[in-house]
Amino acid sequence: MKVAVLVKYVPEPTASWSFAADNTLDRAAVDGRLSELDEYAVEQAVRLKESGVADEVVHVSVGPAKALDALRKALAIGGDSALHVVDDSVHGSDALGTSLVLAEALRRVGADLVLTGMASTDGEMSVVPSMVADRLGIAQGTFAGEITVDGGSVSIRRDTDVATEQVDVRLPAVVSVTDQAGEARYPAFKSIMQAKKKPVDTATVADLGVDPARIGLGAAAVSVVEISPTPPREAGTVIVDEGEAAGQLAEFLAGRGFI
Amino acid sequence: MSAVLVLAETSGSTVRKSTFELLTAARRIGEPGVVLIGDATDDVVAALAEYGATTVYAVPAPEAREYLSVPAAEAVVEVAGRVSPVAVLVGSGPLGKDVAARVAVRLDSGIVTDAVAVELDDNSVVATQNIVSGRYVARTKVLRGPAVITVRPNSIGAEPAPATATVVTVDVTFSDQAKGARLVETTPKAGSGRPELTEAAFVVAGGRGVGSADGFGIVEELADALGAAVGASRTATDSGWAPHDLQIGQTGKTVAPQLYLAAGISGAIQHRAGMQSSKTIVAVNKDPKAPIFAIADLGVVGDLHTVLPALTAAVRDRKG
Questions:
Q1: How far is B192 from B67, CA to CA, in rounded Å?
Q2: pTM for the complete prediction?
């Protein structure tokens, strides 16, 4: 079975992010890293290879030149090769555009199972995996806390707000995994070195046969009309408990109508 | 007035509060029709009508409940084809996200996720979001297709607006792809008797400072006294003191209750991402330098093991 993992290079979460004049995230202005939530997907893929279920693991990313860092990090955790789609025309793509490019990249890779994180840590949308599945005409199993491959299907456990679900997803499929799926291993130095030598294929949008009119800022079906920093919360009061705090808290809650 | 479609979510035979919030939002931009997966029982229809639904498109086909997400998406696409809505509103949970994604692709529509407000601006749908873990506010206009919007729970107050709802039964021919993920077993979350976390008006959450699974009992007691939901930081859930589905934060749930009381939670950025839109924030922590105090309306530097039980008693006293 061939497994592909979709990974994203995202701005460092602890850095200060800013927006460019076109209201897109200024990715060049900050350091980036492999999206933390994608690590869970990479780890699952590597475990599938180790258990002999998968014979090949390919990491796929659409991103600027620096996104290669994310692919090398993924390869250090494990995996055989990567496909990096680099193309300026992808800039400013919305979820529809991004999912189109990813779907075509995956068609080229030809995987039976596509693993992804449950969301990117910058977009935070949780929709691209399902969009990719729809474009490829295949099944999906999202927000999986646990996955087990069994013949022609993947059994997943999903935790929603109101229930725990056990779902059998027919392959080929896109499966997104949550942080419940098992911590990614910390790559050994040797793995990091080996990762540098693993093959990384690059492709442009034209290589994938994607119509450039369907991607990029100009093709987006949404437009961010305004971005402003969230107004800071007004500084509140801090009291030190010397035995009275509970009473003061109760006063405060009553004052705001909570009790 | 344009039609707006809302995907209803039910828990058993009860309509979830988030659906009433969607209907309230829908009414601001058009006339609400509901896509209901399942049978249109009198109770459910009445509840939807109470919040303004004028049509309920019922999809009773068993496949829609037997297979995950995609049949619901195809049902929404089918109904959207009939009514040409200006927007499709769904909840921001796993079902809503799955449905929104596929609907957006099929209708080639703009999609905005986790909206906290929805409005019409010159015939275009504009959604407001808190992005970058709540650090920025964005207003996003949909340029193409019926706007597909997932709405964050507890952001729009549900307001009744009684209407008369007509029921239309919809027959959907599901694609083979729609039957790709079969729901083998559903185990409803053990009713704790407490409100569901993402929908609760009040949340009491415990973190590292709680110290143990037993310690969490203190958090739960206060929650019960207040009629609140219980939440936890990642440290607490990773330590096994509270189940994972109570985790609030970037990799857990995002909540925006009226009151968020953080006990023994330092307030690291990943946790704040999940609760900083709470209307009132109260924090109890031993460490005066805990980052949570920067966003608390009232902060108490003290030992939660003393303060919380005393507060619980005080709350019970007041409630009588």
A1: 27
A2: 0.92
